[in-house]
């Protein structure tokens, strides 16, 4: 009988408020922030998480978030190069776009929210059509990571129903260049060397006439867009130069010379924010022309006063000045207003643009910090008094549901209800059922921790050598013991719950007995507090890294910095065994419940399993790609868990020395591991500040199947990579020859999903072709034999799949093709060999004739004709299919066009009818005569216009 194991899977991830992998967005109430592979939605005012956007099985980190002008739609870019469109109301993915080979670094929607531009580390820009859910084209030209994208809508060009007004795209990159792309011709019309160093940030003002770019040297440059030159197109001036569309104006002085990592205009208020320092953001106010003129007049008056001119002359000059002031430079528009300083490094910021009516005057500035926290500041409106220095006030802060630094240690209570996690600065208690943070207590730099007997207290060992005892009921520090003179690396409670042992870098193992003191009886019930009494010390030859009692209470294992493990009898502390074989120090160890096996893990990436009878090494396993940080046995078994710096959690069989399961999910080194006392789950804590729970599932796991699945995954990903590598080889070859590869390319990227979809289409075509061939033969036989003998002929048996679904072959193929996601359709069609393309064309003709899903049919037809144009032109095989297809498709499209035209006319009729009914109703209600009503309506319109203008 083949042995089966219990499969484990990820069920919870908590402890994260926001990760520093991506930017965040804020709408005045809700914050949409990255949390490694998920996006979290926080109500900042209540400090409550409202939603988690999680796609099962997707493990790549979020690298970019962009809100669409269309309500409730967000574009989220990931580290694997994919872009997903999320619906914020349902928390589900509307579409997935695969086109980039590396992490997506910039996203931008056009003004209508129908097109999306994405830029990535692979230096490409891709324009996506959101309505058709397809990639339109890829723009190449930059030589380094894209850092900023903005659509430009020239004000002169009116938006028509036939085409979008957004014809231009602006992009910046780390290659120091800023490019202006004409999307109607799909080419770059101007390239500007924006800075001497990498361009890190870019934004365009709401009026779309100014561009600000920030570099890694701390320069902030100001550019203007000449829409007249854009309207005229590329023209040469009299001197023979090409007219420039983007012109440099000035460089803005900043307080710090660090990298300008973000520049952002407020959408409605005259406000610009620039982040050029790790912890602070400079706010600039954009002045009106009147303010600048007044200031110019004041400045001139002061100059005249200083030159001690006559008063009469001064008045005359002042009048002259008022009449003809200096020309206003764009650099005069900006004035430094205030600096917002945060408590930690700022990862990104956003203006809270919500309802202007609901919020008091002023601007909200939202900060996502690199320390796993969020803050919102209120920036007061500008006042005329010079005495008041404007100050930004912090109005909301969200930092309790997560650690500021790496999660270094985890421990579970004996009933698995509570989890304690500790980091440098804080100890947190979590309810394991709800994963809610129920206590946060300040502590030192925690290294190890354990629940003390009774689960009312927690002992934490710190970097400074102290033992801190926390009382959970009062969530306070009840005792601090200066236990060691160096870092306390390990704590363990003896199985009889009488003694706590601590091991430290001061080369000492200390034993502490528990004593319960009755507190003074000032309350009705006396409270008992727990204290530790030092009883014995065991001095070692080297730093102690880990201490462990055997579950039968007879032995004590101590691992040392000299890479050995010493085992003593715990009662007399007499030496029993020495385990040596590791090349680097043993960082953690554990002893099985039957006290027969000890497993040790080391910084040499190996795990060794030893017998405790004679100290013989049963097996040495190369377990992880990096140092193995912790190892723990599952209760009442010889299965054990290991975690390492390679971000992996692994499950092993200690009797067969086999790897059972590899679980990846963390995005940083895993420091801490805790195993449930009932064997139901394991918890891991990591450098990425997240805590993850991996639960035992009901489905069994067989080792052979698991290995096959892993090999299949490796093969599929390698196949997809090899298919994607062909076009990169071509482009790099073209680049090396000194000429750039084609500036515009198709948007294709093969993934395992597209390959599978292509295979499914091929299988459906084979099945349908065989079925049609069999029935075609039967019909021919009937004709050949004649009617009387044909009565005895049996029709061939139908294919079981078609019989079960009760579908004709052509309907079955359409059903399979319709199930291919719209975003993966083109890549799936590229997988088809030419013979299958010929077969699919015949079915496309049948579908067009029958009028089935004409939109899909025409999309597939045009794509296949464009892709296989050379083969189709070279031979005449497809003439027989294409000529009737042209007639059928044209007729079908004409019918579709008529339907749409009819529907549009009907909608316009309904709108007109509705408007006339509303006017008539208004007349009837008021009972006025027609002239007074018209006056009233006109007055109402005027009032509305005035209020909007104001």
UniProtKB/TrEMBL annotation:
GO biological process: maturation of SSU-rRNA
Principal subcellular localization: nucleus
Sorted UniProt keywords: Nucleus, Repeat, WD repeat
A Pfam family of this chain: Utp12
Lineage, highest ranks first: Eukaryota, Fungi, Dikarya, Basidiomycota, Agaricomycotina
Subcellular locations according to the entry: Nucleus, Nucleolus
PANTHER family: WD REPEAT CONTAINING PROTEIN 3 WDR3 (PTHR19853), WD REPEAT-CONTAINING PROTEIN 3 (PTHR19853:SF0)
WD repeats: 55-96, 97-130, 168-191, 192-226, 400-440, 481-522, 579-620, 621-662, 663-695
SUPFAM superfamilies documented for this protein: Nucleoporin domain, WD40 repeat-like
Species this chain originates from: Paxillus rubicundulus Ve08.2h10
Signal peptide: none
InterPro entries documented for this protein: SSU_processome_Utp12, TBC1_cilium_biogenesis, WD40/YVTN_repeat-like_dom_sf, WD40_PAC1, WD40_repeat_CS, WD40_repeat_dom_sf, WD40_rpt
Family: Belongs to the WD repeat WDR3/UTP12 family.
Protein name as catalogued: Small-subunit processome Utp12 domain-containing protein
Keyword hit for rRNA-binding: no
Disordered: region residues: 295-321
Bias (Basic residues): 295-309
Presence of the UniProt keyword Membrane in the record: no
Domain Small-subunit processome Utp12: 809-911
GO terms under cellular component: Pwp2p-containing subcomplex of 90S preribosome; small-subunit processome
GO molecular function: snoRNA binding
């Amino acid at each position: 009988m083949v042995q089966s194991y219990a499969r484990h899977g990820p069920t919870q991830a908590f402890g994260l408020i926001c990760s520093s992998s991506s930017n965040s967005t804020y709408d005045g109430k809700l914050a949409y922030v990255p949390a490694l592979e998920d996006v979290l939605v926080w109500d900042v005012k209540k400090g409550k998480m409202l939603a988690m956007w999680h796609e099962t099985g997707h493990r790549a980190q979020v690298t970019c978030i962009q809100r669409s002008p269309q309500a409730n739609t967000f574009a989220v870019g990931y580290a694997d190069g994919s872009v997903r469109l999320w619906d914020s109301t349902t928390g589900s993915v509307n579409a997935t776009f695969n086109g980039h080979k590396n992490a997506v670094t910039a996203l931008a929607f056009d003004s209508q929210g129908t097109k999306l531009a994405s830029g990535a580390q692979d230096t490409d820009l891709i324009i996506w059509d959101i309505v058709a859910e397809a990639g339109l084209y890829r723009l190449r030209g930059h030589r380094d990571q894209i850092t900023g994208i903005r659509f430009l809508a020239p004000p002169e060009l009116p938006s028509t129903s036939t085409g979008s007004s957004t014809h231009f795209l602006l992009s910046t990159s780390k290659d120091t260049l800023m490019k202006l792309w004409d999307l109607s011709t799909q080419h770059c019309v101007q390239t500007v060397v924006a800075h001497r160093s990498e361009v890190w940030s870019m934004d365009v003002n709401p009026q779309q006439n100014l561009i600000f770019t920030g570099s890694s040297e701390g320069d902030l440059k100001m550019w203007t867009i000449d829409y007249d030159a854009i309207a005229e197109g590329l023209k040469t001036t009299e001197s023979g130069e090409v007219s420039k569309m983007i012109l440099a104006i000035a460089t803005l002085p900043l307080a710090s010379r660090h990298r300008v990592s973000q520049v952002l205009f407020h959408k409605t208020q005259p406000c610009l924010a620039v982040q050029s320092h790790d912890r602070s953001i400079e706010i600039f106010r954009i002045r009106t022309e009147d303010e600048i003129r007044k200031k110019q007049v004041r400045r001139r008056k002061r100059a005249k006063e200083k030159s001690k001119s006559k008063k009469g002359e001064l008045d005359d000059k002042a009048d002259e000045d008022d009449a003809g002031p200096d020309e206003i430079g764009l650099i005069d528009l900006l004035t430094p207003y205030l600096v917002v300083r945060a408590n930690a490094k700022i990862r990104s910021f956003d203006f809270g643009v919500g309802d202007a009516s609901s919020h008091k005057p002023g601007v909200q500035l939202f900060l996502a910090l690199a320390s796993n926290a969020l803050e919102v500041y209120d920036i007061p409106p500008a006042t005329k008094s010079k005495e008041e220095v404007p100050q930004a006030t912090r109005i909301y802060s969200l930092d309790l549901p997560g650690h500021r630094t790496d999660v270094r240690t985890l421990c579970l209570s004996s009933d698995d209800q509570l989890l304690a996690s500790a980091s440098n600065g804080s100890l947190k208690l979590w309810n394991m059922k709800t994963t809610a943070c129920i206590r946060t207590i300040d502590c030192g730099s925690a290294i190890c921790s354990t629940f003390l007997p009774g689960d009312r207290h927690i002992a934490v060992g710190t970097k400074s050598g102290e033992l801190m005892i926390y009382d959970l009921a009062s969530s306070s520090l009840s005792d601090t013991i200066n236990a060691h003179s160096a870092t306390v690396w390990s704590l363990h409670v003896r199985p009889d719950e009488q003694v706590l042992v601590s091991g430290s870098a001061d080369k000492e193992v200390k034993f502490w007995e528990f004593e319960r003191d009755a507190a003074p009886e000032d309350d009705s019930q006396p409270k008992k507090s727990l204290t530790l009494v030092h009883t014995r010390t065991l001095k070692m030859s080297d730093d102690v890294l880990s201490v462990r009692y055997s579950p039968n209470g007879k032995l004590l294992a101590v691992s040392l910095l000299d890479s050995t493990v010493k085992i003593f009898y715990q009662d007399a502390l007499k030496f029993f065994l020495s385990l040596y074989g590791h090349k680097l120090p043993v960082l953690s160890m554990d002893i099985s419940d039957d006290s027969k096996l000890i497993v040790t893990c080391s910084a040499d990436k190996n795990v060794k399993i030893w017998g405790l009878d004679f100290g013989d090494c049963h097996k040495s396993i190369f377990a992880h790609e990096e140092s193995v940080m912790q190892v723990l046995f599952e209760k009442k078994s010889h299965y054990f868990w290991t975690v390492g710096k390679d971000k992996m959690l692994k499950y092993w069989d200690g009797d067969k020395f086999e790897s059972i399961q590899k679980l990846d999910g963390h995005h940083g080194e895993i420091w801490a591991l805790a195993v449930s006392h009932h064997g139901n789950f394991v918890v891991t804590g990591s450098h990425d500040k997240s805590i993850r729970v991996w639960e035992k599932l009901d489905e069994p796991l067989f080792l052979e199947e698991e290995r096959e699945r892993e090999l299949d995954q490796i093969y599929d990903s390698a196949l997809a990579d090899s298919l994607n590598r062909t076009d990169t080889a071509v482009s790099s070859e073209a680049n090396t020859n000194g000429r750039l590869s084609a500036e515009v390319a198709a948007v294709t990227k093969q993934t395992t999903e597209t390959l599978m979809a292509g295979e499914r289409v091929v299988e459906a075509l084979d099945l349908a072709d065989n079925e049609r061939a069999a029935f075609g033969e039967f019909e021919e036989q009937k004709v050949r034999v004649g009617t009387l003998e044909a009565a005895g002929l049996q029709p061939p048996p139908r294919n079981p799949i078609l019989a079960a679904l009760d579908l004709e072959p052509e309907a079955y193929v359409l059903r399979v093709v319709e199930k291919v996601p719209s975003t993966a359709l083109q890549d799936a069609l590229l997988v088809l060999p030419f013979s299958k393309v010929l077969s699919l064309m015949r079915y496309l003709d049948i579908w067009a004739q029958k009028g089935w899903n004409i939109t899909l049919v025409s999309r597939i037809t045009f794509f296949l004709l464009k892709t296989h144009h050379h083969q189709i032109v070279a031979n005449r095989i497809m003439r027989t299919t294409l000529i009737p297809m042209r007639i059928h498709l044209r007729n079908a499209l004409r019918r579709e066009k008529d339907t749409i035209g009819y529907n549009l006319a009907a909608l316009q009729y309904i709108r007109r009818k509705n408007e006339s009914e509303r006017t008539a109703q208004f007349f009837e209600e008021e009972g006025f005569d027609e002239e007074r009503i018209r006056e009233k309506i006109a007055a109402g319109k005027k009032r509305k216009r005035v209020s909007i203008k104001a």
